[in-house]
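It is worth pausing here to work through a concrete case rather than discussing structure prediction in the abstract. The textbook approach is simple: state the sequence, then state the predicted structure, then interpret. We follow exactly that order.
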Amino acid sequence: MSGTLAGFESEAGARGRAAAALRVGLRTARLAHAWLLYGPLGAGKRALARAFAAALLCPAGRERAEACGGCRDCRLVQAGTHPDLQWLEGDEAQRGARVQTLREAIAELALAPVSAPGRVLVIEQTDRLHPAAANGLLKTLEEPPDGAVIVLLTERVDRVLPTIRSRCRELRLPAARGAASAEHAAIAALLPRWLEHRDAMEGGAWVWAELAALARRRDEEAGVSSEPAALRARTRTFALWLLDALLERLRLLVREAALSGGALGPLENALSRVEEAARQIEGNAPGPLVLGVLAERLDTAAGLRSVLQRLSQPVQSVTQ
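Step two, the predicted structure:
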C-alpha cells in the first residue's frame, strides 16, 4: 500500500495523521481548496502530494478517499502526464520564468478540466516564490476557481507568507523514520550513477575510494537502525566535495558555451540545481537524499540530461 493515501495513513506518527486528514478532506462535501504540506527534506511531501492529487483526479477518488489506481486518470498521474495536474518545481535560476509559469498555471485552474473531476496545482518550494508569483498565488487563494485544489510544499514553512499560510490547511510531515539507514541505502544506490562521471572531476580519487568504502560499510551494517555521528559527518563531507567538483566543472562549461555561442539554458539550470543542493547540505539536510533528488532532476528534466554526459568530456581552455 506504499505510495497511496491508505498506505501513508497506516504509518504511525504525524505522517499517518497527515494522510488521514487528507482522506477526511476528500470525504468532506466542501473540500478545502488549498493545502500546505511542510517538513524536512526526505519527509515524503512529494509522494504524499502525488497520492492526494491522484485521489482528487480519480473519478472514484472522493467516494473512496483514495485513487483506484487502475483508471485512465490514475495511470496518467502515475506517468506524470495528466492534463489536469500541473506540478511546478522550484528553481532559483529561473525565478523570473517561474513567475510566468505560475501565472499560466493559475489561468489554467479556471478552465474546465480535460478529463478529471477537477484540476490540481502542486507548487514545490513555496517559501522561495518570487514576490510577484506569491502575490498572484495569494489572489488565487482568496478567490479560488471552482473544482480546483492547490497543494503547496515547503521545507521552510516559517518563510512562507503569513497571508498564504492563513488560507491553507497546514499539515506537518516529520523526518522519515530510519533516516540513517536511508542514507546508507542512498549512497549505495547513487554511487553507480555518479561514478560514471568521476572522470569529469579533477583529482580527488581518494574521495571516490572512500565513497565506495562507505557503500560497502553500509552493506556490512545492514540492519543497523542508527548511524554513528562520524559516519554521518563523512557522508556530508563527501557530498559537499562532490557538489563543489560539479560546480567547478559546470562553471567551466558555462564559460565555454558563452564564448562559443552555445546553449546556456541547460547548463545554467544545472548549475543552479547543484548550487541549491550544496546550500541544502550546508543547512544540514541529509547529503545522500539531496544527491538523490539532484541526480533524478538532472537526469529527467528537459534539456538537462545531456549535462551529465558532457561532464565527462574535455573542457576547452578558456581565457578571460
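Step three, interpretation. The chain has a mean pLDDT of 76. The first helix runs from residue 5 to 9.
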